[in-house]
Amino acid sequence: MSARVEITLTVNGERVTRSVEARRHLIDFLRLDLGLTGSHAGCEHGVCGACTVRVDGEIVRGCLVLAAALDGAEVTTIEGLTDSGEVADLQDAFVARNAAQCGFCSPGMVMAAADILRHHPGATRAEIREHLSGNYCRCTGYQSIVDAVEGTLKAREGTR
Amino acid sequence: MKWPAIGYVRADSLDDLWRIQAEHGAAAQVLAGGQTLLATLAFRLSDPKLLVDITRIAALRGVELQGGVLRIGALTRHAELARDGLVAAHAPLLAEAAPLIAHPAIRNRGTIGGSLAYADPAAELPACVVALGATIVTASAAGGRRIPAAAFFTGLLETALEPGEIIAAVEVPVATQATRSAIREVARRSGDYAMAGLAASLEMDGARVGAARLVFFGVGAGPVLAARAGAALQGRVLDGAAVAAAQASLAQDLDPPADMHGPPEMKRHLARVLVQRVLAGFQPETEAAA
Ligand SMILES: Cc1cc2nc3c(=O)[nH]c(=O)nc-3n(C[C@H](O)[C@H](O)[C@H](O)COP(=O)(O)OP(=O)(O)OC[C@H]3O[C@@H](n4cnc5c(N)ncnc54)[C@H](O)[C@@H]3O)c2cc1C
Ligand code: FES
Ligand code: FES
Q1: Same structural domain, B15 and B62
Q2: Which segments of B14-159 are extended strands (E)?
Q3: What is the pTM of this model?
Q4: What is the pLDDT confidence band of residue A1, given thresholds at 50, 70 and 90?
Q5: B67 and B96 fall within a common domain
Q6: Which of A144, A147, B172, B257 qualifies as a cystine partner to A99, CB 3.0-4.6 A?
Q7: Across the interface, which of B7, B43, B105 has its CB nearest the CB of A134?
Q8: Residues of A at the B interface (Cβ-Cβ below 8 Å)?
């Protein structure tokens, strides 16, 4: 049994090795140990979605994942997603539609929305809402966020 | 809230797990998807000293067809249940249930073993495995057991698991041409635990019901098998009169407690509505429209 665990994982394409406290969740690991402050910690018990990041290609709640359990994993945060250009159009749509106000939910919202672009390119408005239902936004009232995702899906459809 | 000070260790095999358990005893708690356990840690609702990560134990993984049963490893995630071809073909009720659980990011980590072991009374999967007449296959240092799902859930957040015993897999009898199954629930918001829900599995005998298992969730201490409502359907064609007979029998099957959603009478009402919705889905279109 150990209160500290050594892990080696890939974060946004870079290999990192760190000794982490067993109680450290992935978001604190990213923010405090790696200085990647794009991922947010809101409720820290799985309800708000502000902490949404990718682990091994699939979105997860970063606040409900132990950093210690991620030896060998591949993590992508909003920083990595942005640098890759994968969702540049979606981010432009967020700006154009004013889908980010205070911005606290935005990194998690974009991570979850990117999941729709990847796995459900034909998603209807109702399906977009359903997919984002685990991501809370206290500012926008969601309409503009759904507009931004829907607009991006349509634009991509048109260019295929 | 931050998690309390705690230890972490990974078990790479079942033997590894038994060794860790022998060393740490009751202080050690199994960690699967963590989507319930880690949330309850944040609330200080549970206080284990050591988390034993079982997610890399190969023996607990995988979905396989073995003769007349589909064996679903305990580590199968909700998202995998939703997209697995074998599950869709042989246990469609589970494929239909998975998207009702929480949200995509949670379904990517939460496991069927964790959901059954936690036994939340409003959870979908415990009700489904009871409706399907599944068997819970366990493992422990002392050996494994096979427990019928209906005997597995023993009370509020309680199961037949002994200390140190884990769920290894669930075995579901495969659906046949004559099987009809469905799950419906009523929740205030998408992804929430249900206020009330119904998982049903029927074996048809031609146009008539051979046997029906209607299992409610969110209306009792665990999954509630509505035996009288099931019996009321037996031998009947699934028409309006059959629905009414099943609904009438619910009065004796259910004894819902009041909870944060509302009083018992509200739950009884929702249960009747759910019976109608589930059975309507099995009726020929002309009946359903009538
Ligand atoms: C915001 C939110 C909403 C949710 N909504 C729903 C919902 O609508 N419906 C629903 O059903 N669930 C819901 N859940 C819970 C989710 O489904 C969990 O994934 C599930 O209940 C537990 O599975 P897990 O693998 O995450 O288990 P863990 O959290 O790792 O473990 C849960 C418990 O089971 C034990 N355990 C785990 N695996 C085993 C095993 N193989 N054998 C023996 N014991 C084991 C652990 O020791 C622990 O006590 C929600 C969770 C969150 C955070
Ligand atoms: S911080 Fe993880 S869901 Fe709220
Ligand atoms: S923009 Fe403020 S919470 Fe969403």
Answers
A1: no
A2: 28-31, 50-53, 63-66, 69-73, 135-139, 146-148, 153-155, 158-159
A3: 0.97
A4: low
A5: yes
A6: A144
A7: B105
A8: 1-3, 5, 22-23, 25, 28, 44-46, 49, 52, 58-61, 63-66, 68-69, 71, 112, 115, 129-131, 133-135
